[in-house]
Structures
1.
Amino acid sequence: MALINFTNKGLYCSQGDFYIDPWVPVNKAIITHAHSDHANGGSQSYLCHQFTTPILQLRLGDHHYQSVQWGEVITINGVKVSLHPAGHIIGSSQVRLEYNGEVWVFSGDYKLEDDGISTAFEPIKCHTFITECTFGLPIYKWQPQAKVYNDIITWVTNNHQQQKTSIILAYSLGKAQRILQPLASTNIPIYGHGAITNVHQMLNNNGWHFPTIHKIDGQTSKNDFMGNIIIAPQSADGTSWMKRFQPYNVGVCSGWMQVRGNERRNNVDAGFVLSDHADWDGLLTAVKATGAQQVFTTHGFKAAFSRYLNENGIAAQEVVTQYGDETTNEDNLSSITN
């Protein structure tokens, strides 16, 4: 039997009568992580990992939230449900379902390289694996993050020596936390857009300990950030908010920077290939580690990735969903201002 059906509301488990990452309000929603393409408001109740709960509260407001730990089993109408680390962002989870000896796993978004912040990806054995494939083409192969961090540090340091402000565009939930540690090692003051500092404060209030970010507000003068570092969401690029920081150089952290020419098309000075999603090799490694006999591919280069799996002896088919990619998944957080 199909433990998960693909419906116009999202991934639905009929036996358990719940949805996973639905894109419309439902009675019971299991949420893999708090990015806006996977976590929508209006549902009656939410089940998520304990790290995700305060982020959902920031994004969606007060609701009925049920928090679980990694590997904790909850039985819903006979279906055993557990959450396991996906390594994408803080609290990001894979959802494991078991019923009558049949095991399905929905990956949510994931990456295999341990960033030291998100709990490292854990491969889960299953019969059926539903996997994202945002970067499901062979051209997407990431450098070790330590090398990317060194490139960012070098760029920021050079800008500082030239008295130019370094504006780094990074998602407020995920990427911004990853780059803080290497940026702090420069001892150059770090400032943040409201979307960055609100998430930062919420995480610090809930037991995380990230380096200091100074919020940019009406009291911040040009001398405060001249030659220093500013982290902003990609939605701030090209807005009047940016103009006050001149002279500055703009760098963007994204897996899409792997493709030559994207820096020019995005009108930025530097592109750093840093993604919170698995690359081509990571996707293949994850699929093989599950031992799944059947694979469904969602959001991303799903047709190409599904075709490759079929050609290499793994039964796969693509599924259309409303989940986004690296360009659409996190900046519309409620309660956030400039």
2.
Amino acid sequence: MSTTVAVPEGKGLPVCVTGAGGYIGSWLVKTLLENGYTVHATLRDPGNPSKNSCLLSLPGAQERLRLFRADLCEEGSFDSAIHGCHGVFHVATPIDFGSQDPENEIIEPAIRGTLNVLRSCKRIESVRRVVCTSSLSAASTADESAHVDESCWTSLDSIRENKRHGWFYAESKTLAERAALEFGKQEGINVVSIVPPIIAGPFITTTIPASVDATLSLITGNPLWYGLLQSIQFIPNTVSLIHVQDICNAHVFLMEHPAAEGRYLCSGHTTTMPDFAHVISGRYPQYKITSKFDESQSAAAGSISSQKLLDLGFKYKYSLEEIIDDSVQYFQKLTTLN
């Protein structure tokens, strides 16, 4: 398998998206269809209308979208979907913040599933690159003054010691990304990982994505999602966000760019919790934010660098305000928020 040839832009070439029923996966399918790709999309149950309806109704789906059943825990179940594809976007990951057995339901399946997908890619000679979706929770730090870049990896000891809300998600993403990059090196597969922060904005799924729920928890006051927002501050006292279209554009960019290799942090905007609350309340004064913050936290010391990605030529398109606006407007469609 070549480690230097990327997928040419669009031109109807087939690519595979795992986890196409989720937030990123579904929007990535939409983006790829808009860019002229033929898409093989995997779902655990492709016959389930709650998962497939948002995909089958997309422009171009009738001509260039095929749905496949695949399960992360089933060896070889991705072979059919990946067959004939030039590129693979591995987005699928098990996630259940209410899991009572995260070791066996989240962490182990995330690692095994990633390796199952990559072993399928190795068996299929047409694949030229795999882009794996990780998370900034795999590059987080306890240092408030940290400069976070691709060299930073989350300490598993710290995760297990603190066990903050959603700790198992951070562990699963850290271990799965490490496993993907190591497998690529050992097996000669061109594996690129993209490392995003909280993803928000519009969505086409029939349920509200957890990351959008977390982003808007200052408005809704939901303690579960606010707890998640607090737990996924990748640098203490900060909030890092990216628009879903920007992260999907970055996926396609890294698939297409011939020089892409290794790990890429992709963080659109980083701000402090007090400043984030001020932006929301300034744009939506009708919603009362009851959470209290230490205003001294407004002097953010840490930073999250996307310089490696920017040096390759990628450009962000969406502002923090646009992320908030799109999230609120789509959230309103499925809730009583008004």
3.
Amino acid sequence: MIIFKCRYVLENIYVDIIEVKRPNLSDDAPFSEKFLWLKIEKEALTVTPLTLRSVDSSGEVEERYFEEGFLKFNNTIGTFIEKYNSAQHLLQYNDCLEVSEQTKNAIMDYFAQRINA
């Protein structure tokens, strides 16, 4: 079984943007393998990794720049703007305990496919 810990969850009725940590990896594993941002389309449960390019934090506001878009959030709301189709997702910041079982299973399936690829 693939284990992961949720760090951040931003969601709306269509999409989840989640940062996960894989604690079962060794301490010398690459940062990009231990900490991953994922975009999950809720209807199809499609998991797409987001390629982190840079991070900015000003205390109250967090910003993440990905190859696939831009995420800005605080402890209540956020916005993800997709780079390639300019879609804008208004998101609610949620507790990791609120992640659905379907989403957790989709993430575990994603990790299992990466390992078996």
4.
Amino acid sequence: MTDRDLIGADWRKSTRSGGGNDCVEVADNLPRIVAVRDTKNRDGGTLIFTRGQWSEFLAGVKDGEFDRA
């Protein structure tokens, strides 16, 4: 994966972030991948997921799989 693969990425923050900088940004408009980066350090690296991996993660979030007890 290169920076070229991220050309055209439309980065967005969750509406639940409250407009702050302590969150992550997601670009899910890319052809085959979903990219995630830290808002505080946008040049610090990007996590890349397949669309399937991202869908599984979102399903886990919705099902409470990652909720703290």
